[in-house]
TrEMBL record:
CDD domains: RNase_HI_RT_Ty3. It comes from Nosema granulosis. The keyword Cytoplasm does not apply. Keywords: Endonuclease, Hydrolase, Nuclease, Nucleotidyltransferase, RNA-directed DNA polymerase, Transferase. Residues 1-82 form the Reverse transcriptase RNase H-like domain. This is Transposon Tf2-8 polyprotein. GO terms for molecular function: endonuclease activity; hydrolase activity; RNA-directed DNA polymerase activity. InterPro entries: DNA/RNA_pol_sf, Integrase_H2C2, Retrovirus_Pol_polyprotein, RT_RNaseH. PANTHER family: PROTEIN CBG26694 (PTHR37984), PROTEIN NYNRIN-LIKE (PTHR37984:SF5). Pfam families: Integrase_H2C2, RT_RNaseH. The keyword Calcium does not apply. Residues 146-196 form the Integrase zinc-binding domain.
Length: 258
């Protein structure tokens, strides 16, 4: 399923979810309504207390003279929490949401066997590839770095442990192999650019409210340079300070210059 939350000025948020094994057994009507329900719940903090128009290419969601299941009836009761209208649109007009809920096939290059890539780096005697006592191909002494680099790129930039154990250890012999692998991987420009930064995940706290003026959040934005803005009677000096107060339920915000 896929959904897009937007206003006239542009997109505000996206939502996409894969149906699990139980949800895959829902009827078409149930799947369409379930997608609307999950999208609304995902964006609840942004849309609650506002009038929302839902555009869907599923005619069944209009529920005009339709016999619906008990599950669908329960979902309709949840939808009553929102101020919304449902409008049916043509399937050709629902491109953005469809993109989020479709699995597209991507053309890829034809797979090339590793042996054909590294053949020029292997030791030969009278046009015959040399193997060691463990029946592994022997790599030429002056081709170690070139060989490991090719295997590293072929394996989609595998890390040191995976490169050695899954691609080289059982099939090829290189003197001082572990040091060579470590040298190549640590010097790989592509790996350095795309190295994943391991950060400790902080627990996320989501503040919700069920009625107006129940929970207020505030913050101070300061200091900012007033010389870049027009002068007003509310501020003085070169540095400015402002206090923001927001109602969590309605998102109504007041800004006060200090």
């Amino acid at each position: 399923m896929g959904a897009v939350l937007f206003q006239d000025h542009g997109v505000i948020g996206y939502y996409s979810k894969k149906f699990n094994t139980i949800e895959q057994n829902y009827s078409i009507v149930e799947k369409e309504l379930f997608a609307i329900l999950k999208s609304l719940e995902f964006h609840r903090n942004l849309i609650q207390a506002y009038t929302i128009q839902i555009e869907t290419d599923g005619r069944n969601c209009i529920f005009e003279n339709k016999v619906i299941s008990k599950r669908t009836e329960r979902w309709k009761l949840i939808l009553n929490e929102f101020d919304l209208t449902i409008r049916n649109i043509k399937e050709t007009e629902n491109n953005i949401a469809d993109k989020l809920s479709r699995c597209f096939y991507v053309d890829t290059e034809k797979h090339t066997d590793l042996y054909m890539i590294v053949r020029g780096c292997l030791e030969t005697e009278e046009d015959t590839l040399v193997k060691d006592e463990r029946n592994r191909y022997v790599v030429k002494e002056n081709k170690e770095v070139e060989f490991v680099t090719k295997v590293h790129e072929w394996s989609v930039h595998a890390r040191i442990y995976s490169l050695y154990n899954n691609n080289i250890k059982e099939r090829y012999f290189i003197k001082n192999i572990k040091n060579t692998i470590e040298k190549v991987v640590k010097a790989c420009e592509m790996c350095l650019r795309n190295k994943r930064c391991r950060k400790r995940k902080m627990k996320k706290y989501r503040i919700t409210s069920n009625k107006l003026m129940e929970i207020l959040s505030s913050d101070i934005f300061a200091p900012f340079d007033l010389l870049e803005y027009d002068k007003s009677s509310q501020v003085s000096g070169e540095k400015g300070f402002c206090l923001t107060i927001t109602d969590v339920y309605s998102r109504f915000t007041v800004v006060k210059f200090l």
